[in-house]
Amino acid sequence: MNKPDLPARGPIAPRRPSQSHHHGIDREDGYAWLRADNWQAVMRDPAVLPRDICAHLEAENVYTKAAMGDTEALQETLFAEMKGRIKEDDSSVPAPDGPFDYYTRFVTGGQQPLFCRRPRGGGEETILIDGNALAEGQAYFRIAQVAHSPDHKRIAYAVDTKGSEYFTAKIIDAETGAVVEEAIADACGGLEWAADSQTLLYVWLDEEHRPRKLFAHKIGDTGEDRLVHDQTDPGLFLDISLTQDGKYLLLGTHDHETTEVSLIDAADPYAEPRLVAPREAEHEYSVCHHEGRLIILTNSGGAEDFRIVEAPADNPSPANWTEIEPHRPGRLILDIIAFKDFLVRLERENGLPRIVIRRFADGEEHEIAFDEEAYALGMSAGYEYDTTTLRFTYSSMTTPSQTYDYDMATRERTLRKTQEIPSGHDPSQYVTRRVFAPAKDGETVPVTLLYRKDTKLDGTAPLLLYGYGSYGITIPASFMTNALSLVDRGFVYAIAHVRGGKDKGFAWYKNGKRAKKTNTFTDFIAAGEYLANQKFTSRGRIVAQGGSAGGMLMGAIANMAPDLFLGIIARVPFVDVLTTMLDATLPLTPPEWPEWGNPIESAQDYKTIAAYSPYDNVSAQAYPNILALAGLTDPRVTYWEPAKWIAKLRETGTGNNLILLKTNMEAGHAGASGRFDRLKEVALSYAFALKLTDRA
To answer: Peptidase S9 prolyl oligopeptidase catalytic domain: from which residue to which, for each copy (predicted)?
Structure first.
């Protein structure tokens, strides 16, 4: 690894110890001062960040730029490669709705999407929203949602210009683009129209960045927007959605393991919401409407991997639920869509997804599945209810994404689009595999691999090992154009499907959360050790990567097995778990307690989290090379978590490896907003991995 002439340890943050006391335990935090007291204001205006904190973050950025200075040409090359794999004037497959086809497209050189429509089946295009024009002059710009009214006359959309996920919603005339209503501030991005095409429902965020209230905005009404629902429990999220047939608006309140859904008549949005099933700890369910009945996906009755029931829409309480698809252990039902004549479900078994189609008339079923060892499969409901067409996407680590329209009646499959790689891609030159790493407790951890056919599997290849493992999120084995920049330079690219996700069913999630959270970390380490033992790589040749909760995984494995990893890339890493879970004023803390535990109320939860929280367990040992990436306005993983972690690593860790922090001072959790600007952040990460492995 080439090392530029740098100060040995990088910027040293001053220690300003603060004390806390919980459950008879005293705790000192030397870097708590990096948390700005005015963090809420910073989310709205980054310029008000206290000067001492700003100076430290900027010093870290300067140091990282100097440390990576010898890779600047490489970063430019990587950026050009990754950009060259993007079809710059790409467009989505049009989605029909009544008289129009709706779609997004990009223009050559443009960073933002254009939202468009045209008469169904062809005709003159109307650009509804020009993202490039709206983004002009903005350091950050993201359109979260675009919703057209049922009569197709109006378009509502939500915009974030800080990266803080405080959205401003606007309503425009679909034909002229003229603003119909002035901005609706502090929305959370979810927008739904009522059946009258005059009333827009949106969720409002409070000062703690929590989705607190559901409002209805009536076009032309100069008074205050009407409050539909006030969610006072800070531990719950609030959202609004629409059934496929457009009959009901679904008011959802939930945390990470409990759901409550109420029905709002889309024709009468001010009516009192009607509860489907009252909130019950660890009961999750979702709702579709079909011809006067509800189709409900639920884990009630011990159905850990979910079952499907039905109930009358006018009396949907659990006492009236009738099972139509039983629970089958190991077969996890992920999602359902109710069309007029067909019920569609997406499910996963043995780590692989499939789509199952059921005809309502007679219950006959058939499935859509594929033969590769590992692949990703997704489905889209579209806008229409009375249709026989289902849209789905397929890809694998070697196969670019393919979009199909599937006729559920005739079973005819029509390829509508194959992802284009302008710079070229030959799938035959690559290998994708699924292997299983033995975990310490006898479980086997699925690992998806991608490498070139000519890569020597003799232990000499460097390997990037990606992991997440939280909230039940499964990382798909999908096509990733960016990864080719590593694989083409001799890397093996691997995804460890560790516990905490739902890769092997719901139990895979339960056994990677709360008291069993350390399974996530030991699974990842087991995957790395297995890949080294099998000569896909070797110890000390692995670069680990993860972001957000996956960044917590990065911090934990750095503490637990530093000699296994050459480097760690931690994007917006959730590393100060104990401090955050002890601070009930932060946006996501109360809703996160079901995932991690509540250390305020429970001494056992405190001890459990304290035992693995990466920041709290930094010790005097030699750490791998580390690159941490943060976003100043991130409301999910606040900027001070990675800043504190890097400061403590510099203070406590030994050795002379690179310990780097890069904070995007103009973005939040998702990083840069433009499609090309995002590639620059990926290029930095990959240049770091290549630098460490002398593949630069």
So the answer is: 478-692
Q: Please name the residue that has the structure tokens 């009959």.
A: 247
- Active site (annotated) includes residue 548: yes
Structural domains for the chain: 76-84+447-693 (3.40.50.1820), 138-282 (2.130.10.120), 284-421 (2.130.10.120)
- 300 catalytically annotated: no
Q: How sure is the predictor about 207, in pLDDT bands with cuts at 50, 70 and 90?
A: confident
Candidates 164, 262, 548, 673; catalytic one: 548
Dist CA 649 CA 662 (whole Å): 15
pTM higher than the cut 0.85: yes
Nearest to 527 by CA among 548, 512, 542: 542
Q: Which residues of 635-669 are buried (b: 16+ CB within 10 A; e: fewer)?
A: bbbbbbbbbbbbbbbbeebeeebbbbbbbbbbbbb
Is 634 a residue of the active site? yes
**pLDDT by residue (tens digit) across 8-59?**
579 999 999 999 999 999 999 999 999 999 999 999 999 999 999 999 999 9
Q: What length is written for the chain?
A: 696
pLDDT digits 0-9 by tens, 173-195: 999 999 998 779 999 878 999 99
Per annotation, catalytic residue among 186, 305, 616, 634: 634
Q: How far apart are CA 602 and CA 392, in angstroms?
A: 45
